Amino acid sequence: MKANPTVAIVGATGAVGAEFIGCLEARNFPVGTLKALASARSAGKTVSFRGAPVVIEELTETSFNGVDIALFSAGGSISKKFAPIAVKAGAVVVDNSSAFRMHADVPLVIPEINAVRIKDHKGIIANPNCAAITALVPLWPIHQANRIKRLIIATYQAASGAGAAAMAELSDSTRAYLDGKPYQQTVLPHPYAFNLFSHNTAIDPDTGYNDEETKVIKETRKIFEDDRIAIGVTCVRVPVLRAHSEAITFECEKPITEDEVRALLKDAPGVTLVDDRVKNYFPMPIDASGQGNVLVGRIRKDLSDPSGHSISIFVAADQLLKGAALNAVQIAELV
Ligand code: A2P
């Protein structure tokens, strides 16, 4: 890889695209040239990078000539079509969509867990699902010390996971609700203001699980390289702008205590403990937003398991940063 690579952002006008640019700037990524790509609708507009405007170009089959690293976040169908084109042109792709995550020859990487897999790539490296990243960063040090054999997760997922238009729908519908005006949602399937609903992905008619839940199960097993881990998960969209929260209960092979979990997570990479029982202060999306770590708290024994093998925690992380752009830029740094 060149010392100052040409970096393309596919989906530069999107919610994650904007954060790609922010992360490249904040982390002083050694970008030689930045290429901003989006649909024909955005061509000719500009985004700002290091204080200078970058003109957005329409994504086409020739967009990747001369590109060294391409960060994709424009949806699965765009990735499916254009990531192979980018690889053929010589770029390494870090893809934020689900298009390639479960392909056997595509590494699925959370740098704090399996950075070692990056070297196996054949042009594409996949960024995991945001709900999976949020859970797995703090679970990994525990799993290494005392294998997690069963995992139960309930998510409280922000609008940002459905893109910039969904964030705008949350703001606009909330304003309309408070003004007593009618509002017809166009992005998400249900009223969002002062409401919540089961995750807006397709339901598998056999299992009753939605796609988001299935992704969390499959991606956890791939990233942990542990096909035996039993996982139950319920994914819910809540009216929060940009950070996901999750209630997690895990059962380990050997007995485990709250203090052991606290000790394992105290200095764990990518984790910040927010666990103040006296002040009743625990992870909140408002605190998670804009920073890169997974906040972890409410560390306590699962009272439903008297054998002492199970612990419950509550976590929150910025979906647009650690759940998407930051994780991808960390991968690009390692590339
Ligand atoms: P555009 O703004 O031009 O539509 P989000 O995840 O926030 O919804 O953003 C989606 C991103 O994907 C946007 O940058 C959007 O660009 C981009 N995108 C959507 N459709 C296409 C397409 N056909 N070609 C290139 N980029 C696309």
How would you describe this protein?
There is one protein chain. This protein folds into two domains: 6-128 and 324-334, Rossmann fold; 132-318, Dihydrodipicolinate Reductase, domain 2. It contains nine helices and 15 strands. It has helices at residues 15-26, 76-88, 111-114, 130-145, 164-178, 211-224, 258-266, 285-288, 321-334; strands spanning 6-10, 33-38, 46-49, 52-58, 69-72, 92-95, 124-126, 148-156, 197-198, 230-234, 236-237, 243-252, 271-273, 294-301, 310-318. The strands form three sheets. A seven-stranded mixed beta sheet has the order 3-4-2-1-5-6-7, sandwiched between helices. α3 links the parallel β6 (92-95) and β7. α1 (15-26) crosses α9 (321-334) and α4 packs parallel to α6 (211-224). The longest helix is centred in the middle third of the chain and has 16 residues, at 130-145. The structure holds adenosine-2'-5'-diphosphate.
Quickly list its features.
335 residues, alpha/beta, Dihydrodipicolinate Reductase, domain 2, 2 domains, six-stranded mixed sheet, 9 helices
